[in-house]
């Protein structure tokens, strides 16, 4: 914060000086600044004192002093005290601005602009250590020299600091450690750091859960529920998806420390510095194998898997840049992120037509799809769960033949894996020889970019092949035993019911059982609003590890369902009852009284049935394949911006 103080000193001196602007007293502005909070604040008083002594010795008039003191970088051109100083000069009140050196005010070409501002306002500028006085006709030359000298000093200091930091990193200097490690004392080296025995089970659990396919949010919830601390250097005490991602992407988990991924780049307009990616040659690596939780091969494969799984959720780049870099995907309630428009393939999003609980096609929002009908997400969740529970209850008993089919398929699958395992062994041997050849070639051609790129690609392929071999060898060797249908029904029902209270947990579970749902637009055959009916496949195999790879089991455990995501309107709700009563000779007025509705409602239901009979339909709802011409609320396809575009998850949609 700027510290602005006024001090008055009255003295009498002699000498030939320009007369004060006010004709009586010299108005003097002293500028003092320190760069960081680590500098001694008494330096501000020292700067003011040396400027005051110069005024006492050199000014021929009585003078009044105003002091502006501040703390901040001289490179920052948006500092409040710099604006305050410029306003003071532009006011035309001050005769003299004095500072210990020009760098105390600002740096680079802005310093020359500042001096010229003083010249425009007939304000004398004196910079003591630079030997600069604007009464001297050579002041511009002196200013240029001073500016270059200060910039050179800054650059040299920056290089010394960077050199020291890089060298100390190689010597083991470590500032902070993530969760799972203990730094015993402030100046400890990485050789002094140890793994935290209390946190080790949680670190391994994090890795295990991510390998099983859980999201960062799921792992964060697990850590928060178990009150796992983030570590002594964490500012926030709560785990988030980004915190979990940051931890797992720290290569210290595989016994390697890295530095130099980022560097500071100055914005010349404001003087601010921002973090940008550093060139590859800036990267430093240090081996700390005693801090590894898992081997490098397993770690690298996990990172590739996580990055590939999250790649589709990254925002599309604009001019090669992500407009919202490092923003994690939002968690959502069921059925969000699982429902897709059957017309264009775009995902359905919450907030349809300003209703926060309704879902609408993303393509319709962007004028890429005509299907703009919404549905209530909460009602849809209830109806889908009801249909799922009914399907589970109707799961047929398994026949004895099914277990025989499982055994036959498992033996066939095992034979296929054995063949694949042999091929991987052969491929690993070939890649190992290729890598050895490239190492020898690189020693002869150390500057060859082609050899370096080939080496990196071969090494990556070898790691993937080794991991694939590990995965194949980890599959069970014995035939899995199929549980009874009763056990499956109990397991599935219990799993879903236990997650119903938490909408986010429910969403995670249902994504395993129902990976994708399609929202199809329907409409009553006699007209009216467009409603949504979803179609999806329910697969219970993910609840039973080891069985999902077997086709014979998936066929029994998978069922295709259709669910109406709406409540029927009145004429359809009572249609069957009205038709039945009317067939028995009951009058319309009596039917209306008996059902508690109006007689026109009865007539509308009968007209709907007549329409169904004429069209030879058993289901009153018909699918909508194009925008209804008579529906005034569905008009996005007539907008100038409209251009139908199917969803492309790998490109710009």
UniProtKB/TrEMBL annotation:
What are the entry keywords? DNA recombination, DNA-binding
Which residue ranges does the record annotate as region Disordered?
Answer: 634-653
Domain of life of the organism encoding this protein = Bacteria
Report the residue ranges that make up the Recombinase domain in this protein. 178-312
Alphabetical list of InterPro entries matching this protein: DNA_bind_recomb_sf (IPR038109), DNA_bind_recombinase_dom (IPR011109), Resolv_N (IPR006119), Resolvase-like_N_sf (IPR036162), SSR_resolvase (IPR050639)
One annotated GO molecular function: DNA binding
Transmembrane residues, as ranges? Answer: none
* Protein name according to UniProt: Recombinase domain-containing protein
């Amino acid at each position: 914060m700027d510290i602005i103080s006024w001090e008055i000193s009255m003295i009498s001196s002699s000498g030939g000086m320009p007369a004060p602007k006010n004709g009586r007293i010299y108005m003097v502005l002293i500028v003092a600044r320190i760069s960081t909070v680590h500098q001694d604040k008494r330096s501000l008083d020292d700067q003011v004192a040396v400027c005051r002594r110069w005024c006492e010795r050199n000014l021929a008039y009585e003078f009044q002093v105003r002091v502006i003191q501040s703390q901040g970088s001289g490179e920052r051109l948006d500092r409040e005290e710099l604006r305050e100083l410029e306003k003071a000069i532009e006011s035309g009140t001050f005769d003299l601005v004095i500072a210990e050196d020009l760098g105390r005010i600002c740096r680079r070409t802005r310093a020359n602009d500042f001096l010229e501002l003083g010249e425009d306002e007939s304000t004398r500028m004196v910079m003591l250590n630079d030997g600069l006085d604007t009464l001297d006709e050579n002041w511009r030359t002196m200013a240029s020299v001073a500016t270059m000298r200060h910039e050179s000093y800054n650059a040299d200091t920056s290089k010394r600091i960077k050199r020291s930091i890089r060298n100390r990193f190689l010597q083991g200097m470590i500032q902070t450690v993530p969760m799972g490690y203990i730094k015993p004392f402030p100046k400890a080296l990485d050789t002094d750091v140890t793994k935290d025995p209390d946190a080790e089970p949680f670190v391994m659990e994090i890795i295990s859960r991510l390998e099983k396919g859980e999201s960062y949010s799921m792992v964060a919830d697990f850590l928060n529920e178990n009150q796992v601390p983030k570590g002594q250097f964490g500012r926030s005490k709560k785990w988030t998806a980004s915190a979990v991602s940051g931890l797992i992407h720290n290569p210290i988990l595989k016994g390697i420390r890295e530095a130099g991924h980022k560097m500071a780049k100055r914005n010349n307009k404001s003087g601010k510095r921002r973090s940008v990616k550093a060139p590859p040659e800036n990267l430093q690596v240090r081996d700390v194998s005693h801090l590894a939780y898992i081997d490098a091969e397993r770690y690298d494969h996990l990172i590739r898997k996580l990055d590939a799984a999250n790649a589709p959720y990254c925002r599309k780049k604009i001019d090669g840049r992500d407009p919202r870099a490092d923003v994690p995907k939002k968690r959502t309630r069921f059925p969000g992120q699982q429902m897709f428009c059957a017309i264009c393939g775009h995902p359905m999003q919450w907030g349809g037509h300003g209703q926060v609980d309704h879902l609408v096609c993303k393509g319709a929002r962007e004028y890429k799809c005509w299907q703009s009908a919404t549905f209530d997400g909460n009602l849809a969740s209830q109806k889908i769960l009801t249909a799922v529970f009914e399907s589970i209850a109707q799961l047929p008993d398994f026949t004895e033949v099914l277990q025989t089919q499982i055994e036959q398929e498992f033996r066939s699958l095992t034979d296929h894996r054995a063949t694949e395992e042999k091929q991987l062994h052969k491929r690993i041997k070939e890649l190992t020889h290729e890598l050895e050849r490239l190492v020898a070639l690189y020693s002869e051609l150390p500057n060859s970019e082609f050899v370096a790129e080939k080496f990196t690609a071969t090494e990556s392929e070898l790691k993937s092949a080794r991991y694939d071999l590990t995965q194949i060898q980890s599959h069970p060797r014995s035939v899995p035993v199929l549980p009874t249908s009763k056990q499956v029904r109990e397991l599935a029902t219990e799993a879903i019911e236990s997650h119903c209270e938490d909408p986010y947990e429910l969403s995670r579970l249902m994504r395993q059982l129902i990976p994708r749902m399609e929202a199809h637009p329907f409409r009553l055959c006699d007209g009216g609003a467009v409603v949504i009916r979803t179609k999806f496949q329910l697969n219970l195999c993910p609840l039973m590890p080891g069985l999902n790879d077997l086709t014979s089991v998936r066929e029994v455990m998978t069922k295709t369902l259709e669910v109406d995501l709406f409540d029927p309107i009145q004429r359809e709700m009572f249609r069957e009852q009205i038709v039945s009563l009317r067939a028995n000779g009951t009058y319309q007025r009596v039917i209306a009284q008996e059902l508690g509705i109006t007689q026109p409602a009865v007539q509308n239901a009968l007209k709907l049935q007549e329409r169904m009979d004429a069209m030879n339909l058993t289901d009153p709802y018909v699918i909508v394949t194009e925008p209804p011409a008579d529906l005034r609320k569905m008009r996005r396809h007539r907008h100038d911006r409209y251009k139908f575009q199917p969803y492309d998850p790998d490109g710009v949609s």
